[in-house]
Amino acid sequence: MKIKNFSLVLAASLSVTALSGCGIYKKYDVKDIDSQLVKEYAEALQIQDDSTAFGNLSWRAVFTDPALVDLIQRALDNNKDLRNAKLNVDIAHAQLKGARLSYLPSLAFTPNGAGAKYADNDFSWTYQLPLAVNWEVDIFGKILNTKRGAEMAELQSRAYEQAVRSQIIAGVAQCYYSISALEAQLKLSRETSELWKESVNVMRNLKEAGRLREDAVVQSLAQYYSIEASITDIELSLHEANNTMSLLLNEMPRKWTVSPDASINVPVMNRTAIPMAELAVRPDVRASEMALASAYYSTASARAAFYPSINITANGGFTNLLGGFVKNPGDWFIQLAGSLTAPIFSRGQNIARLEAAKAQQQQALNNFEYTLMSAAADVSDAMTVYEKSVKKQQWLALQVENLGKAVEITNELLLFDGSTTYLEVLTAQKNLLSAQTAQITTNLTAARSIINLYQNLGGGR
């Protein structure tokens, strides 16, 4: 008898081991994926986070402008996209709770009664007060893999929430510095317009004095009108930027007060490459990995569908219907049964489901690898744009300085010496305006690259 019991235990152990080998019970482990890129990612996960890394800094440590800090906080409090992302987390958590409770048996109470009368006999009343319990024994991992998949779905929704949060922080900062740049351009254009207006009056006086021809005055006046026309374009862009900010903050359209001289903290970047450990904390990377893990458990569930379901059912209660007889008062009863349901004719569907799950798992792996490569490209682009913008800022500063001197010299030569022409004056002033505008645009590009770098490194905590 002992030998027989030992044989049964051994057979059961071997069966469970075999099923584990089929991947039904095995937990997802990113280190098991046969991909060099993913292996680098798995190794990076073992490295302790560097709290001083740019992407790990709090957004309040990166954006220190009080006005911008207030706007970002208002967006985090009110933005609809972020609220929906948080609700997605609640939904995933509720689904996970349901998956965990699937291990518990179902309980049902279904009282019923009936009455019958035959010929002249009295009414015969029967009743039942049954309590039914049904429990599926999860030997083959169907419920287990569903629960694990729900856990990955919850982690994915949390990563997505962080991605939305990071996107909102970066979006508000981008919009803030765009408004600042447009305000600076508007201020510059209006000041230049006033200077051109004065220049037109001076040229009219010179024309009346016989020192200039009419065409010089007309040329100068045309340039003045051109500047006034460009002001309307800047005002339109500024209006649109203000509306974008209002939308991010979930408020009605309004004008936001932003200084044209707004500046941003510049991180110290003395490296040409970003380690995988910093890319691994990006929320979109984490979300993509959780999608892969969820697909892994979907494949395991599809494999488990090939194995039978084992159910234990118990019924008990109080009734006066005992077989074909009615007994009053009634009596207690209890029933206990077990069932095993093995898929036979549904095998074709199970094969198709497994093949589809494997294909979807491969798609999830492809998407994960692409997300990793895309993350590296995003960071590389942001760093390069920042480095080139800094160099360009230096050259533009020198250009603006020298063009300012050129405008002063040509104006003096035109008014007091007569050795230059109105065309040279116009050209010098146009070149200065163009360089100053380029300087503002480059400053904005540098600020945006810093914001992009922070977001691309998973910033926004």
From TrEMBL:
Molecular functions per Gene Ontology: efflux transmembrane transporter activity
UniProt-listed InterPro entries: MdtP/NodT-like, OMP_efflux
Keywords for the protein's UniProt record, in alphabetical order: Signal
Highest taxon above the source species: Bacteria
PROSITE patterns in UniProt: PROKAR_LIPOPROTEIN (PS51257)
Keyword match Signal: yes
Signal sequence, start to end: 1-20
Any one Pfam family match given in the protein's UniProt record, by short name: OEP
Family: Belongs to the outer membrane factor (OMF) (TC 1.B.17) family.
PANTHER family hit by this protein: BLR4455 PROTEIN, OUTER MEMBRANE CATION EFFLUX PROTEIN
Annotated protein name in UniProt: TolC family protein
Organism whose genome encodes this protein: Duncaniella dubosii
